[in-house]
Amino acid sequence: MKIGVRAHDYGKMEIEQLAKTLHSVGYEAAQLALPKAFAGIDSYEDITLSHLDRIRNAFEKNGIEIPVFGCYMDLGNPDESVRRFAVKTLKMCLAYSKEVGAKVVGTETAYPHLSREEKAVWYPYMLDSIKRVVEEAQRLDVKLAIEPVYWHPLENLEAVMDVMEQVGDEIHLRMIFDASNLLEFPDTTDQNAYWSEWLRNTGKYIEAMHIKDFYFDENRNYCPTPLGKGAIDYSAISKWLHENRPDMYLLREEMNPQIAQEDIQFMKNL
What we know:
Layout: E1 2-6, H1 15-25, E2 29-32, H2 34-37, H3 49-61, E3 65-70, H4 80-100, E4 104-107, H5 116-140, E5 144-146, H6 157-167, E6 173-178, H7 191-202, E7 206-211, E8 213-216, E9 222-225, H8 235-244, E10 249-252, H9 260-269
Domain Xylose isomerase-like TIM barrel: 22-269
Keywords: Isomerase
Protein name: Sugar phosphate isomerase/epimerase
């Protein structure tokens, strides 16, 4: 398994400085959201070929792979102008990902927390957006990876399998697995059974895993924790990784740099 991190958890830096920083901590991989990670890039429209060339060279020089080019867009929004911008931006980033040597372009499918009724309304818009972006991924021969989240239209295992079946292209449409974004009821969920079912069905689509941990406070506010100190039981996930995908990218999100080594060791133990 390759240990990585969401790069902008270390702050916004010059390209070369960030690559050196991540290498010095001991990471082998990084998820890059360029406007959040790099000084001088404030939007996806700011990205130039010079930026992409510098990123590729700096990260190759420091031995850090780029499994995910982050471009999280509001794909299911009923507002056509919002969706048009989302699809256009993702298509642009598919081309950028090829230039930096990223494995996939990663996105969730919405921005806001949606009600059950809203998720049903947003779902067909989301599906249409995904199909449009995958057409471009096919043309460029690169990959889009979608990340399910229980408060988004791509909310559960049934939704993921429906989208994968309707698109019908497991080469160009992949998935990012984030357990924290799928555990709505940690106190009552049999996590061994839950994660085993998820991974049995979606494992062939998974390109990378986000690794984080959390608890809900008395008001159900999400509170990040160090790995192994929160609600997530990684036992079934670790078992599946060893048996099926020992080459998986494990990308720490919500990293606190002050405890980076403890979290890196936790991921190595997975």
